Fold:
Amino acid sequence: MKIEGLIFALGAAFFWIVSGIYWYVARDPIGTTALALCGGLAFLVAFYVLYTSKRVYPRPEDRLDAEIDEADPEYGFFSPHSWWPFMIGLATFVVVLGLIFAVWVIAVGVTLLLISLVGWLFEYYRGDFAV
Structure:
């Protein structure tokens, strides 16, 4: 977990440096604040991950002498044939378009989103892939 922590620490340093440069060049308090807070959030994640990496046993991914079979074989179940995440993305896109254009588009998007969520939830209870 040290590599992940160092990546976030480098991100925090990058955002703080960029916020200083942005403040000097643009004199925009809103953008400077946003960049500084983004660096602060990256620092919080970096601190947590680095602190946790000192207290837990190193993962096989963190050791140079680790073998492939030492890793956890079960990372979860991911459906390779599912189109429902794509439909949820499209429905979310319609909801965001409704925030821009009209309230009735939000209603259509929320309806599509609920249909997509139910379809994704019950994907393995009916049809060709029923368990």
About this structure: The two ends are 37 Å apart (CA to CA).
